[in-house]
Amino acid sequence: xxxxxxxxxxxxxxxxxxxxxxxxxxxEFLYDDHKLLLRSTPAAPAASCAVASRVRVLSxxxxxxxxxxxxxxxLEASLRKQSGDPDACVADFFDLAAGSGSGGVxxxxxFTRGPDGRPLFSAAEALRLLAKHRRHLVSGARRKGILGxxxxxxxxxxxxxxxxTTLRDTLKPVLIPCYDLATGATIVFSxxxxxxxxxYDFRMEEVCAATCAGPTAVEVRSVDGRTMIRAVGGxxxxxxxxAAAVTHVLNNRHEFPxxxxxxxxxxxxxxxAEAPAPHGKARALLSEAELVRIASSVHAxxxxxxxxxAFGECRATNxxxxxxxxxxxxxxxxxxxxxGMLRERGVESVxxxxxxxxxxxxxxxxxxxxxxxxxxxERRKQSTVPAVALKTSVxxxxxxxxxxxxxx
Length: 408
Fold this sequence. Notes:
Elements: H1 3-7, H2 16-37, E1 55-60, H3 65-83, E2 96-99, H4 102-111, H5 123-132, H6 134-144, H7 148-152, H8 157-162, E3 174-180, E4 185-190, H9 191-194, H10 204-212, E5 218-221, E6 228-232, H11 234-238, H12 242-250, E7 265-270, H13 288-311, H14 315-318, E8 319-322, H15 334-343, E9 345-348, E10 356-361, H16 362-382
Parallel strand pairs: 1-2, 1-7, 2-3, 7-8
Antiparallel strand pairs: 3-4, 3-6, 5-6, 9-10
Helix pairs in contact: 3-5, 3-15, 3-16, 4-10
Domain PNPLA: 56-246
Organism: Musa acuminata subsp. malaccensis (Wild banana)
Function: Possesses non-specific lipolytic acyl hydrolase (LAH) activity. Hydrolyzes phospholipids as well as galactolipids. May play a role in disease resistance.
């Protein structure tokens, strides 16, 4: 008998009817409805998470791009090693990718179709690109906002990288958010919308500019010129896009017909190493940048808590969060911080409680998740029911992948 039930045992001051009503509510509402929400069965909760096919979702936070890039490069290396395929790419093992800010740029690099029909970049190549141009990214952010004019205008790096490719040219569904000052709402660039109409299709160069914009707004237009967005960055709008990605899959039966609940998903959410907390007088007077960092970090934690709670008993097998705890000292570069984060024990957000360290390091989590992705890939070879059915365009368009230049 639970402590609550024991407290409500029939006594002089508690009549039998009150006791029976409480017992009924406890057994029928508190327990049965909770099990229903978790989509589990009382007899075999573990078995409820073992399904024939799971939709694979990648989510990348608006964190330091080189750090999250290092995490993705390590995941890709693990996939190649465990699968025995030296040419395997991250995009081969996911059905949908969501990214915000620098995470959106990484998603665009890894999931845009190149001239050969393969991903434009491998994770290792994307990491080298970000590391090579990181100095320009930082200086551009100080002058004109993140990525600055160097990357977002005609002739810039993003133009050289993406050419004329658009959202329609992505290999898999992608979700990349920004905030639209014109409408006062969060906008999510989506391949699913882009294939519906030209008014929702945007050049990948401008999608990246929009999700990284700030503090100065960037104006981007759809390929037909009819839709204009005055964008500021995805970090402000949706720093952790995991919940949006999960919701998109569960409410998009056209593309994901087998996804009926969280037990039908396999999700990895990648954050960054935590920035050190301010000390001394800085605690009393926070800069705008520090306030944005705190707000973004809190948002990421809240999303992680909500998603983890939604997965319930399937959390251990179907959802993993990769995030640093800031415990590695002496890291002077973003690349070193990325490697250090992989060696750390990850942090887990517990609802209404402080964070706690997980039992495994982030690298161990990645290796285990890579094994699950490979199992899912093999499982699909034996299945006759497709887990994903990508939307095709309802209006004719020509793929612009052939004009992409990747020499940058």
